[in-house]
Amino acid sequence: MNRQMKSILFYTLVVVVVIFSVFPFYYAIVTSFRSGQELFNPSVFPTSFTTGNYFSIFKEQPFGLNILNSVIVATSVVILSLIIAVTASYALARIHFRGRGLLLMTILSVSMFPQVAILSGMYELIRSMGLYNSLPGLIIPNTVLTLPFTVWVLTTFMKELPKELEEAAVVDGASPLTIVRRIFLPLMWPAMVTTGLLAFIGAWNEFLFALTFTLSNEVRTVPVAIALMSGATEYELPWGNIMAASVLVTVPIVVLVLVFQRKIVAGLTAGAVKG
Amino acid sequence: MTLALQQDGTATRKAKRSNLSSARLRAAWLFLAPMMIALAAVAGWPLLRTIWLGFTDANLTDLSQSQFIGFENYLSYYDGEAYGVLVDAEWWNAVWNTLWFSVISVGLETLFGLLIALILNAEFKGRGLVRAAVLIPWAIPTIVSAKMWGWMLHDQFGVINEILLGVGILSEPVAWTADPSTAMWAVIMVDVWKTTPFMALLTLAALQMLPGDIYEAARVDGINPIRVFFKVTLPLIRPAIIVAVIFRSLDALRVFDLIYVLTSSSTSTMSMSVYARQQLVDFQEVGYGSAAATLLFIVIALLTTITVVAGGLKSGEGEQS
């Protein structure tokens, strides 16, 4: 095989990979601008441009409220889990104590939990606290779902910082809380942004709890709202609306991911490869 | 070494040291307390309650009215006939579906992930754009990707049927997600599409840590690149790939969202998680569903323990140095 053949083959492969990756999202955007009879035209190219679907999702159902719910839940989850995780990960990464290895392994195992295994116990807990069908009833389980991952990634990042950083402060008698606040927090911002972003995406996408612990459309989050969108009959799904809603909530996430590409890759590798 | 150093130090320094370190130890546990309380209260407790509920006849309408019935949800005999999760053909069907789904999709993801990582590791024009494009499926929420593919795979108006009919691969439209013979493949394909970027990124990270001089030497010696890949590259990145495969497998075993949305509760694709939730919520059989959920937990816990212990031994060796 000569050089030219090789490079043609290589670029063909690249094009196939790119098309396979991007096409479904592209097609969702194309569909979201089709309405009425036009929706049943399965052409791969944009054939019409009507924005009706984007308006009807807000008119026919409380989709604006669903977005707000998702934003509230995901933001609260990120803030809560980062606050709890940053001190915990300092202890796990910088202080030698007995049982540390075991604790780290336990945290890693908890992040592997099948969600459904705590579903009935969690349902009972949420009910008994009177939080069924409310946003706090989603924030609490989601925070705990995210926490092990957040702690794990932050611990990995914190372990990488040089030892000398805190030695002087320790000898000077600075309290651990001061050390965390004054020395580590300023250095940890990039890692916290990465971890927070991954936690946000996780909470934004969470489905099982959001589906099971809510009842009315007004407290549902975006994924549940999209999954349960229905038309006049069971067999007549409003595909135009579903695609418009999907595109609307996915574009910000895709933009975030592309902007923070490098940070996200660093966070994912810290969470998995070094684990 | 350390012993010699310690004997070198004076008694006061030692006392100060131990004072300091005991203060740090107290701080460590104080710092860990919020996390441990949160995990115990909102993960540990519900887990214990789920296991307990699995031994009761609890019903969703009133959980407080449940009674202890021992192992009846798992296995019991009435008039010589066996009942319970362990003899439920649908449960075993779900177990089989989950294993099949996990093995095939993680296998394909590893393979495609490696291929894409090799592409992204090569120097070529537009590499940044290709990497961004590859990352898109990962960024799309699972529910959204299930819906997007559900629409593309639609039996009457789906673009996939349209394309395949157009080029002559199909002679008549296929109901991909409804037909039992294709439904699982549809699920696997969407999962592969969604998760290959994750595998590709982790593999790429491992590839980029490889020392360049080995390849230089191989090139100078004129060794076939394919041979270099199998003899040098693959053995070196194997540990990273194994970790990624373990993470993905544990994730695949608990699959719920994708199957629930793409094929709802069709038996041909039902996973263990979907089965457990159906019993719990749709049939309101909290006791029975909890028993199934507990079984799934045991399977995953066993696999996780084996992995963590095996991995822990290895990293323990590393920490000695």
From TrEMBL, chain A:
Its main location: membrane. PROSITE patterns: ABC_TM1. Residues 67-260 form the ABC transmembrane type-1 domain. The chain crosses the membrane at residues 7-29, 67-90, 102-123, 135-154, 183-204, 239-260. It is found in: Cell membrane. The keyword 4Fe-4S does not apply. Pfam families: BPD_transp_1. Keywords: Cell membrane, Membrane, Transmembrane, Transmembrane helix, Transport. It is a multi-pass membrane protein. Belongs to the binding-protein-dependent transport system permease family. This is Trehalose/maltose transport system permease protein. It comes from Pseudovibrio ascidiaceicola.
Automatic annotation (TrEMBL), chain B:
Keywords: Cell membrane, Membrane, Transmembrane, Transmembrane helix, Transport. The chain crosses the membrane at residues 27-48, 99-120, 132-152, 183-207, 228-247, 288-313. Residues 95-307 form the ABC transmembrane type-1 domain. It is found in: Cell membrane. It is a multi-pass membrane protein. It comes from the Bacteria. Belongs to the binding-protein-dependent transport system permease family. This is Trehalose/maltose transport system permease protein. It comes from Pseudovibrio ascidiaceicola.
